[in-house]
Amino acid sequence: AQPGFYAQLAAKTQRLMDGLQAEAKRHGVTFSAQAVGGMFGLYFSKAVPTSYAEVMSGDKEAFNRFFHAMLDAGVYLAPSAFEAGFVSAAHSDADITATVAAADKIFSNW
Fold first, then answer.
1. Global pTM value
2. How is residue 35 annotated by DSSP?
């Protein structure tokens, strides 16, 4: 019921996606991401998949590697390459910054 809530949530989620994509690109990691509102998807493919076949052709082993490295860094993501993640009102700007920083460190050792 708070005015602007969904716009702020979408902006926070997009900031996370933009940060993850920027760090992956900076380190030469094949990665794409997309978001709608507070929901997001992470893909180890050149572009966001648009079909079942494209989803299945993504690098699932790279996703697993990223998932476990992020978990070790204290960032809890959905454990499957086929699941959506969610940003909530409880996630702060500091949480987003820390998540992107963790991805930077992981991608730098990719």
1. 0.93
2. E
Contact in structure between 45 and 54 (CB atoms under 8 Å): yes
pLDDT in tens, 33-47: 999 999 999 999 999
Torsion of CA 22, 25, 27, 33, to 10 degrees: 70
- DSSP notation for 58-87: S-HHHHHHHHHHHHHTT----SSTTS-EE-
Nearest C-alpha neighbor of 12 from the set 74, 105, 101, 97: 97
Spatial distance between the Cα atoms of 108 and 40, rounded to a whole number of angstroms: 23
Structural tokens at position 67: 């998932």
CA 54 to chain centre: 18
